[in-house]
Amino acid sequence: MLIAWTTVSSRTEADLIAQAAVKQGHAACVQIDGPITSIYRWEERVETAEEYRLTFKFLPEQATALEQLVHTLHSYETPEWIVVPANHVSEKYLSWARTPPNSSPF
User: Fold this and answer.
1) Tens-level pLDDT at each residue, the chain (106 residues)
2) All domains of the chain, ordered by start, with CATH?
3) Distance of alpha carbon 49 from its chain centroid, rounded?
């Protein structure tokens, strides 16, 4: 399993991306945190912005499609997209994540 993060400027955009990722079967789960405060360098200036963080949990075979979806729906010119492997995932959770979207008990 992989975990990825991005941040967006509004709750509406966060909801849109999260819903699309799960509905299209590109992520098993997306969590939205925020608002958070981000301080970053952009075009030679230090900026401060209120953002929402999305955390995606997905399988390696979903990685390309998920990244394309996020970049398509994202409003930023250079969106954050960081992916890391999960070192350990319980078998029960991994089994749930592997369940095809239409057969999920939810």
Assistant:
1) 999 999 999 999 999 999 999 999 999 999 999 999 999 999 999 999 999 999 999 999 999 999 999 999 999 999 999 999 999 999 999 999 998 766 555 4
2) 2-103 (3.30.70.120)
3) 19
Peptide bond into 35 cis (omega under 30): yes
Lookup result for tokens 């992520």: 27
The residue whose two tokens read 């991306």 is 17
Strand partners, 39: 48
Q: What distance in Å separates the CA atoms of residue 103 and residue 47, rounded to the nearest whole number? A: 44
Nearest one of 84, 82, 68, 66 to 22, comparing CA atoms = 66
